[in-house]
Amino acid sequence: MWERAQPAKGSKAPGRIPETKESGGRTRPQQGVRIRAILSPSAFRASTVELRITEIFHSLQGESRSVGVPTVFVRLTGCPQRCVWCDTEYAFQGGEKRSLDAILEQVDGFSARYVTVTGGEPLAQPNCLPLLTELCDRGYQVSLETGGAMDIADVDERVSVVMDLKAPGSGEQHNNRLENIPHLRPHHQVKFVLADRRDYDWARFMLDQHNLTGRVSEVLFSPVHGQLPPGELADWILADRLPVRFQLQLHKLLWNDARGR
After folding, report:
1. β-strand 114-118 against 141-146: which pairing, if any?
2. Positive or negative: CA dihedral 64, 76, 173, 171
3. 207-238 pLDDT, tens digit each
């Protein structure tokens, strides 16, 4: 729908765009009146908004500050990055096109409070943004897992963004979009997945260089599963007195790499 940004001062018909008559009886909007397009959630639902979905499932949150909490996961298909340790390569392609309505209906069916939109890289699909907004409008606690290569500026402010910064060992360090850092908010989280001591030292540098603990609520350090012994990473964090959260992937401890868990 179309909506005027601000009612015209002294307008006799609030909500209408003030017009000026031209010769010949034609009219045009008055100069200086700003007009904006607003697409409401109901308009999203009524439109043909679609996303390509790999899977939607109900499980325990395996990472971040809500670890262990029952959560609905909406995994979008596609990713522009190719981390060498990626554990969701099956989401790179394929999937099924689903309408926004159908996605929301399935999410509602789980009667959960928390929803995580993940991938792949969810922000690679522009329609991820209205999905996030609609989930927030429905009262869900929503988090977005993003690899850090896509712009987060337009993500709904109510969403808890969990943004990766890719360490050298990932093979994707060159794709870190550092322009995202000023857009981080106190309720956001930053995640480092670390393969070795080199990755850890790089993460420590980034922590200080960008004052990450002063920007977000949680900075997460995770060892690459099966590559960096968790005890080593824990010892390094304690020795350096880092104000970060050490985490393991709970879902892998419980169900290994089973899909949909």
Report:
1. parallel
2. positive
3. 999 999 999 999 999 999 889 999 999 999 99
Rg of the chain over Cα atoms, rounded to whole angstroms, equals 22
Residue 9, C-beta contacts closer than 8 angstroms, at least 6 positions apart: none
Which among 71, 37, 57, 51 has a CA at the least distance from the CA of 129? Answer: 51
- Residue whose token pair is 């824990």: 234
Residue-level pLDDT at 122: 97
What per-residue confidence (pLDDT) applies to 88?
84
216 compared with 47, residue with greater pLDDT:
216
Tokens read off for 100: 């926004």
Q: Which residues have CB under 8 Å from 108's CB, separation 6+?
A: 138
**CA separation for the pair 165, 192 (Å, rounded):** 6
CB 167 within 8 A of CB 192: yes
| CATH number of this structure's domain 41-255, picked from the four choices 3.30.450.20, 3.40.640.10, 3.20.20.70, 3.60.9.10 | 3.20.20.70
Q: What 3 state SS string does the chain have? A: CEEECCCCCCCCCCCCCCEEECHHHCEEECCCCCEEECCCHHHHHHCCCEEEEEEEEEEECCCCCCCCCEEEEEEECCCCCCCCCCCCHHHCCCCEEEEHHHHHHHHHCCCCCEEEEECCCHHHCCCHHHHHHHHHHCCCEEEEEECCCCCCCCCCCCCEEEEECCCHHHCCHHHCCHHHHHHCCCCCEEEEEECCHHHHHHHHHHHHHCCHHHHCCEEEEEECCCCCCHHHHHHHHHHCCCCCEECCCHHHHHHCCCCCC
10 Å CB burial of residue 169 (0-12, 13-18, 19+) is buried
